[in-house]
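Worked example 2:
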Amino acid sequence: METGPHMELRHLQYFAVLGETLHFGRAAERLHISQPPLSRQIALLEEELGVVLLDRTRRSVKLSAAGERFLQDAKDILASVERAKRNALTASLGHSGSLSVGFMFAAAYSVVPPITRAYTSEFPGVDVHLTESIPRLLMQDIRESNTDVAIMYPPSELEGLETRTVFSEPLVVALPAEHPLARRTGTLDAAQLRGESFLISPRVAAPYIYDAIVSHCKRCGFTPKIRLETNYQQTIVNLVGQGIGVALVHRSMKTARPINVKFRTLANPPYVDVNVTWNGLNHNPCIQTFVALSEKLGAELKPGG
């Protein structure tokens, strides 16, 4: 069974130009085709629609009532097609879409706020969803693609993952305000904390920071006596303020301004890195725009936070 001609985008383009010029010769010139093919295509378009779009005389071409209505609809369709092209290109470049970002709590006091502000400002077409979690669960979410990108410590297992360091800062000592060491001035050596009760994140939740703290203490001649383990740096600092023990925490935790806590600078402190990490099989284009901006902003925040 044979079918008649079908309307194509080029037919709408031809008619839109002709509807604007109302002159076959000028329309053909603008479209870079000769006049006879243009006339045939318009005639075929009218045949398919079953209406007269143009009132033709030897001296003039005018739009019929149907032609005026169809011209507006044709322009709307063509504009929608162009918008769809732009949207597809924008999405492919990571300038629109959605992005789920997980972050560890400690980063909320350093890079998460400036990165989020900068990214949402530069890419307003991306819907960013932030979720706080612990490093172990962030790793699981990245591997299962429940989260697109994570702001966290460097991952311990890199298989299948991509990661970039975007920030680094030293650890400092958090002491109860009434602790004798809190009243001294100058740099504090970690060896002076021998015998103190430490508050720390559990290794199962955050092996990177746990190992950094324990290793530094051992280099200073002792193994820290751990009184309490809890997942979040803010909780650790608050408990320090309650006199439960001492802790080595990110320097950026000073901005939390906890009550009854004094921060002291460490001699030769260990530095902790904050990375952006994602699954190499996750092809969400927004990941790359987020990573690039995070690296750029992180470089501006260095050295040492």
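The mean pLDDT is 89. The chain has two domains: 9-91, 99-305.
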